[in-house]
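look at this fold:
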Amino acid sequence: MTDRVLAIDGGNSKTAVLLVDADGQVLAQVRGPGASPQNVGLARSLEVFDGLVREAARQAGLSPDEPIARHTAAYLAGADLPREELELQAEIERHGWSGTSVVGNDTFALLRAGTTDGIGVAVVCGAGINCVAVAADGRTHRFPALGRISGDWGGGGHIGSEALWLAVRAEDGRGTPTALLPAVIAHFGTATAADAVERIHFGEAEADEHELCRVLFEVAATGDRVALDVVDRLVEEVIVLAEVSLGRLDLLEEPVDVVLGGGVLTGTGDIVVGAVRDRLSATAPMARIRVVDLPPVVGAALLGLDAIGGGPGAELRLRSAYAEQPAEQALDLASGG
Protein backbone atom coordinates (compact mmCIF):
# COMPACT_ATOMS: atom_id res chain seq x y z
CA MET A 1 0.00 0.00 0.00
CA THR A 2 1.01 3.65 -0.33
CA ASP A 3 2.66 4.86 2.85
CA ARG A 4 0.31 7.07 4.81
CA VAL A 5 0.60 9.05 8.05
CA LEU A 6 -2.32 9.44 10.42
CA ALA A 7 -1.90 12.61 12.48
CA ILE A 8 -4.00 13.44 15.54
CA ASP A 9 -3.99 16.72 17.43
CA GLY A 10 -6.12 16.14 20.50
CA GLY A 11 -6.77 19.44 22.26
CA ASN A 12 -8.90 20.53 25.18
CA SER A 13 -11.46 22.28 22.98
CA LYS A 14 -11.21 20.37 19.68
CA THR A 15 -9.61 17.37 18.02
CA ALA A 16 -8.16 17.41 14.52
CA VAL A 17 -7.25 14.39 12.40
CA LEU A 18 -5.20 14.60 9.22
CA LEU A 19 -4.39 11.74 6.86
CA VAL A 20 -1.54 12.34 4.40
CA ASP A 21 0.48 10.18 2.06
CA ALA A 22 4.28 9.93 2.06
CA ASP A 23 4.50 12.75 -0.50
CA GLY A 24 2.68 15.15 1.82
CA GLN A 25 -0.60 15.07 -0.10
CA VAL A 26 -3.65 15.61 2.10
CA LEU A 27 -6.02 12.66 1.77
CA ALA A 28 -8.51 13.63 4.49
CA GLN A 29 -8.98 16.10 7.32
CA VAL A 30 -11.58 15.91 10.05
CA ARG A 31 -12.39 17.94 13.14
CA GLY A 32 -14.36 17.06 16.25
CA PRO A 33 -14.77 17.92 19.92
CA GLY A 34 -12.02 18.19 22.48
CA ALA A 35 -11.03 14.84 23.92
CA SER A 36 -8.27 15.39 26.45
CA PRO A 37 -8.10 12.31 28.69
CA GLN A 38 -7.79 14.59 31.71
CA ASN A 39 -11.13 16.17 30.87
CA VAL A 40 -13.24 13.36 29.44
CA GLY A 41 -11.44 10.19 30.54
CA LEU A 42 -9.35 7.74 28.57
CA ALA A 43 -12.25 5.67 27.24
CA ARG A 44 -14.12 8.69 25.86
CA SER A 45 -10.90 10.09 24.36
CA LEU A 46 -10.31 6.93 22.37
CA GLU A 47 -13.97 6.81 21.35
CA VAL A 48 -13.68 10.32 19.87
CA PHE A 49 -10.35 9.58 18.21
CA ASP A 50 -11.59 6.35 16.70
CA GLY A 51 -14.71 7.98 15.27
CA LEU A 52 -12.68 10.75 13.66
CA VAL A 53 -10.04 8.35 12.34
CA ARG A 54 -12.67 6.12 10.77
CA GLU A 55 -14.31 9.14 9.16
CA ALA A 56 -10.92 10.24 7.77
CA ALA A 57 -10.44 6.76 6.30
CA ARG A 58 -13.90 6.93 4.72
CA GLN A 59 -13.11 10.35 3.23
CA ALA A 60 -9.90 8.94 1.75
CA GLY A 61 -11.83 6.10 0.11
CA LEU A 62 -10.19 3.37 2.15
CA SER A 63 -11.82 0.03 2.69
CA PRO A 64 -12.80 -0.79 6.31
CA ASP A 65 -10.51 -3.82 6.07
CA GLU A 66 -7.56 -1.84 4.73
CA PRO A 67 -4.84 -0.49 7.06
CA ILE A 68 -5.41 3.22 7.55
CA ALA A 69 -1.77 4.25 7.77
CA ARG A 70 1.77 3.06 8.15
CA HIS A 71 2.34 5.34 11.13
CA THR A 72 0.20 7.24 13.64
CA ALA A 73 1.53 10.48 15.11
CA ALA A 74 -0.73 11.46 17.99
CA TYR A 75 0.12 14.63 19.87
CA LEU A 76 -2.38 15.19 22.61
CA ALA A 77 -3.33 17.58 25.36
CA GLY A 78 -3.25 15.56 28.56
CA ALA A 79 -0.19 13.56 27.50
CA ASP A 80 1.86 15.50 30.01
CA LEU A 81 3.91 12.75 31.67
CA PRO A 82 5.75 9.72 30.22
CA ARG A 83 3.35 7.43 32.07
CA GLU A 84 0.39 9.06 30.32
CA GLU A 85 2.08 8.88 26.93
CA LEU A 86 2.72 5.15 27.34
CA GLU A 87 -0.85 4.49 28.44
CA LEU A 88 -2.28 6.41 25.50
CA GLN A 89 0.10 4.75 23.04
CA ALA A 90 -0.96 1.31 24.25
CA GLU A 91 -4.61 2.22 23.70
CA ILE A 92 -3.95 3.65 20.25
CA GLU A 93 -1.98 0.58 19.22
CA ARG A 94 -4.83 -1.59 20.45
CA HIS A 95 -7.12 0.07 17.90
CA GLY A 96 -4.83 -1.04 15.06
CA TRP A 97 -4.95 2.08 12.93
CA SER A 98 -1.34 1.67 11.79
CA GLY A 99 1.76 -0.49 12.07
CA THR A 100 3.65 1.95 14.31
CA SER A 101 2.67 4.88 16.48
CA VAL A 102 4.08 7.67 18.62
CA VAL A 103 2.23 9.59 21.31
CA GLY A 104 3.50 12.89 22.68
CA ASN A 105 2.32 16.15 24.15
CA ASP A 106 0.63 18.45 21.66
CA THR A 107 3.18 21.21 22.31
CA PHE A 108 5.75 19.14 20.39
CA ALA A 109 3.43 19.32 17.38
CA LEU A 110 3.26 23.08 17.77
CA LEU A 111 7.06 23.21 17.75
CA ARG A 112 7.26 21.16 14.56
CA ALA A 113 4.56 23.25 12.88
CA GLY A 114 6.56 26.39 13.59
CA THR A 115 9.98 25.12 12.51
CA THR A 116 11.57 23.24 9.64
CA ASP A 117 13.22 20.66 11.87
CA GLY A 118 11.41 20.52 15.21
CA ILE A 119 14.38 22.13 16.99
CA GLY A 120 13.82 24.99 19.39
CA VAL A 121 11.33 26.00 22.06
CA ALA A 122 7.55 26.12 21.86
CA VAL A 123 5.28 27.90 24.31
CA VAL A 124 1.57 27.37 23.98
CA CYS A 125 -1.10 29.35 25.80
CA GLY A 126 -4.61 28.25 24.98
CA ALA A 127 -6.88 26.61 27.51
CA GLY A 128 -3.73 26.05 29.58
CA ILE A 129 -0.06 26.89 29.27
CA ASN A 130 2.90 24.66 28.46
CA CYS A 131 6.42 24.71 27.07
CA VAL A 132 8.71 22.13 25.48
CA ALA A 133 12.19 22.38 24.00
CA VAL A 134 14.26 20.16 21.72
CA ALA A 135 17.98 20.55 21.03
CA ALA A 136 19.76 19.53 17.83
CA ASP A 137 21.42 16.63 19.66
CA GLY A 138 18.04 15.19 20.67
CA ARG A 139 17.94 16.41 24.26
CA THR A 140 14.53 17.64 25.39
CA HIS A 141 13.17 19.74 28.20
CA ARG A 142 9.56 19.93 29.28
CA PHE A 143 7.33 20.80 32.21
CA PRO A 144 4.62 18.59 33.77
CA ALA A 145 1.98 21.22 32.88
CA LEU A 146 -0.57 19.88 35.32
CA GLY A 147 -1.87 23.26 36.40
CA ARG A 148 -1.26 25.02 39.67
CA ILE A 149 -0.04 21.84 41.40
CA SER A 150 2.93 21.76 39.02
CA GLY A 151 3.70 25.48 39.31
CA ASP A 152 1.83 26.71 36.24
CA TRP A 153 0.38 30.19 35.82
CA GLY A 154 -1.61 31.18 32.77
CA GLY A 155 -3.91 29.78 30.15
CA GLY A 156 -7.27 31.10 29.03
CA GLY A 157 -9.17 29.53 31.90
CA HIS A 158 -6.81 30.90 34.51
CA ILE A 159 -6.79 34.42 33.06
CA GLY A 160 -10.58 34.41 32.73
CA SER A 161 -10.98 33.45 36.36
CA GLU A 162 -8.61 36.30 37.25
CA ALA A 163 -10.88 38.72 35.38
CA LEU A 164 -13.89 37.66 37.45
CA TRP A 165 -11.89 37.69 40.70
CA LEU A 166 -10.58 41.19 40.08
CA ALA A 167 -14.01 42.50 39.11
CA VAL A 168 -15.66 41.08 42.22
CA ARG A 169 -13.01 42.58 44.50
CA ALA A 170 -13.27 45.94 42.75
CA GLU A 171 -16.99 45.93 43.46
CA ASP A 172 -16.90 44.87 47.11
CA GLY A 173 -13.99 47.13 48.11
CA ARG A 174 -11.28 44.53 48.63
CA GLY A 175 -9.55 45.34 45.34
CA THR A 176 -8.49 48.14 43.03
CA PRO A 177 -11.04 49.97 40.87
CA THR A 178 -10.91 48.64 37.32
CA ALA A 179 -12.81 48.76 34.05
CA LEU A 180 -13.02 44.99 34.35
CA LEU A 181 -16.00 45.49 36.66
CA PRO A 182 -18.45 46.98 34.14
CA ALA A 183 -17.06 44.72 31.40
CA VAL A 184 -17.68 41.59 33.45
CA ILE A 185 -21.15 42.80 34.48
CA ALA A 186 -21.97 43.43 30.82
CA HIS A 187 -20.67 39.97 29.91
CA PHE A 188 -23.09 38.29 32.30
CA GLY A 189 -25.94 40.74 31.71
CA THR A 190 -26.50 41.24 35.43
CA ALA A 191 -26.87 44.35 37.57
CA THR A 192 -23.75 43.65 39.65
CA ALA A 193 -20.80 41.28 39.77
CA ALA A 194 -22.25 39.84 42.96
CA ASP A 195 -25.39 38.89 41.02
CA ALA A 196 -23.21 37.09 38.47
CA VAL A 197 -21.41 35.21 41.24
CA GLU A 198 -24.73 34.15 42.76
CA ARG A 199 -25.98 32.88 39.39
CA ILE A 200 -22.78 30.91 38.86
CA HIS A 201 -23.03 29.47 42.38
CA PHE A 202 -26.55 28.18 41.78
CA GLY A 203 -25.74 26.80 38.34
CA GLU A 204 -27.85 29.40 36.59
CA ALA A 205 -24.90 30.76 34.58
CA GLU A 206 -21.59 29.45 33.30
CA ALA A 207 -18.39 31.09 34.49
CA ASP A 208 -17.09 30.75 30.88
CA GLU A 209 -13.50 31.61 31.79
CA HIS A 210 -12.30 31.54 28.19
CA GLU A 211 -14.74 34.26 27.16
CA LEU A 212 -13.76 36.21 30.28
CA CYS A 213 -10.15 35.92 29.14
CA ARG A 214 -11.16 37.68 25.93
CA VAL A 215 -12.92 40.35 28.02
CA LEU A 216 -9.74 40.93 30.04
CA PHE A 217 -7.65 41.49 26.92
CA GLU A 218 -10.25 43.88 25.53
CA VAL A 219 -10.14 45.88 28.75
CA ALA A 220 -6.34 45.81 28.77
CA ALA A 221 -6.36 47.28 25.26
CA THR A 222 -8.08 50.38 26.68
CA GLY A 223 -5.15 50.97 29.03
CA ASP A 224 -6.74 49.71 32.25
CA ARG A 225 -3.87 49.18 34.67
CA VAL A 226 -5.40 46.25 36.54
CA ALA A 227 -6.02 44.29 33.35
CA LEU A 228 -2.61 45.26 31.98
CA ASP A 229 -0.98 43.86 35.12
CA VAL A 230 -2.47 40.45 34.29
CA VAL A 231 -1.20 40.70 30.72
CA ASP A 232 2.26 41.66 32.00
CA ARG A 233 2.19 38.65 34.32
CA LEU A 234 1.43 36.40 31.35
CA VAL A 235 4.28 37.93 29.35
CA GLU A 236 6.66 37.23 32.23
CA GLU A 237 5.45 33.64 32.46
CA VAL A 238 6.00 33.02 28.76
CA ILE A 239 9.49 34.49 29.03
CA VAL A 240 10.34 32.43 32.11
CA LEU A 241 9.19 29.22 30.43
CA ALA A 242 11.30 29.96 27.36
CA GLU A 243 14.35 31.12 29.33
CA VAL A 244 14.39 28.11 31.61
CA SER A 245 14.04 25.71 28.69
CA LEU A 246 16.73 27.46 26.67
CA GLY A 247 19.02 27.47 29.67
CA ARG A 248 18.54 23.79 30.48
CA LEU A 249 19.52 22.89 26.92
CA ASP A 250 22.40 25.42 26.74
CA LEU A 251 20.69 27.38 23.97
CA LEU A 252 20.54 30.88 25.46
CA GLU A 253 23.46 32.05 23.29
CA GLU A 254 22.47 30.07 20.20
CA PRO A 255 20.38 31.04 17.15
CA VAL A 256 17.18 29.17 17.94
CA ASP A 257 13.48 29.39 17.18
CA VAL A 258 11.03 30.21 19.96
CA VAL A 259 7.59 29.28 18.67
CA LEU A 260 4.48 30.81 20.20
CA GLY A 261 1.02 29.35 19.72
CA GLY A 262 -2.40 28.86 21.22
CA GLY A 263 -5.41 31.13 21.03
CA VAL A 264 -4.41 33.40 23.92
CA LEU A 265 -1.05 34.20 22.33
CA THR A 266 -2.07 34.33 18.69
CA GLY A 267 -5.51 35.87 19.07
CA THR A 268 -4.60 38.98 21.06
CA GLY A 269 -2.50 40.92 18.57
CA ASP A 270 0.97 42.09 19.51
CA ILE A 271 0.24 42.89 23.15
CA VAL A 272 1.86 39.64 24.33
CA VAL A 273 3.97 38.52 21.37
CA GLY A 274 5.63 41.90 20.90
CA ALA A 275 6.46 42.18 24.59
CA VAL A 276 7.89 38.66 24.65
CA ARG A 277 10.04 39.44 21.62
CA ASP A 278 11.39 42.62 23.20
CA ARG A 279 12.08 41.25 26.67
CA LEU A 280 13.45 37.84 25.69
CA SER A 281 16.13 39.49 23.60
CA ALA A 282 17.89 40.57 26.80
CA THR A 283 18.69 37.00 27.84
CA ALA A 284 18.48 35.15 24.52
CA PRO A 285 19.70 37.71 21.97
CA MET A 286 19.83 35.24 19.07
CA ALA A 287 16.39 33.74 19.64
CA ARG A 288 13.94 34.11 16.75
CA ILE A 289 10.33 34.58 17.85
CA ARG A 290 7.90 32.83 15.53
CA VAL A 291 4.12 32.76 15.75
CA VAL A 292 2.62 29.59 14.32
CA ASP A 293 0.28 30.20 11.40
CA LEU A 294 -0.64 26.53 10.94
CA PRO A 295 -2.72 24.27 13.19
CA PRO A 296 -0.74 21.87 15.40
CA VAL A 297 -2.18 18.87 13.51
CA VAL A 298 0.10 19.88 10.63
CA GLY A 299 3.03 19.65 13.04
CA ALA A 300 1.85 16.19 14.10
CA ALA A 301 1.70 15.13 10.44
CA LEU A 302 5.18 16.55 9.82
CA LEU A 303 6.52 14.57 12.77
CA GLY A 304 4.86 11.51 11.27
CA LEU A 305 6.46 12.18 7.90
CA ASP A 306 9.81 12.56 9.66
CA ALA A 307 9.27 9.15 11.23
CA ILE A 308 8.69 7.41 7.86
CA GLY A 309 11.43 9.29 6.04
CA GLY A 310 9.42 11.93 4.22
CA GLY A 311 11.62 14.56 2.61
CA PRO A 312 11.54 18.36 2.20
CA GLY A 313 9.26 18.05 -0.81
CA ALA A 314 6.63 16.28 1.26
CA GLU A 315 6.83 18.98 3.92
CA LEU A 316 6.46 21.76 1.39
CA ARG A 317 3.52 20.04 -0.29
CA LEU A 318 1.75 19.51 3.04
CA ARG A 319 2.28 23.06 4.22
CA SER A 320 1.11 24.47 0.89
CA ALA A 321 -1.93 22.22 0.67
CA TYR A 322 -3.03 22.98 4.19
CA ALA A 323 -2.60 26.70 3.65
CA GLU A 324 -4.93 26.35 0.65
CA GLN A 325 -7.43 24.31 2.66
CA PRO A 326 -7.68 25.87 6.14
CA ALA A 327 -8.97 23.85 9.01
CA GLU A 328 -12.35 25.58 8.88
CA GLN A 329 -13.05 23.77 5.60
CA ALA A 330 -12.54 20.37 7.21
CA LEU A 331 -15.55 18.30 8.10
CA ASP A 332 -16.76 19.31 11.56
CA LEU A 333 -18.02 16.31 13.51
CA ALA A 334 -19.41 17.99 16.58
CA SER A 335 -20.66 14.68 17.97
CA GLY A 336 -17.25 13.04 17.69
CA GLY A 337 -18.53 10.39 15.31
In short: Residues 225-248 form the longest helix (24 residues). Residues 37 and 45 are 6 Å apart (CA to CA). The chain has two domains: 4-113+294-332, 115-291.
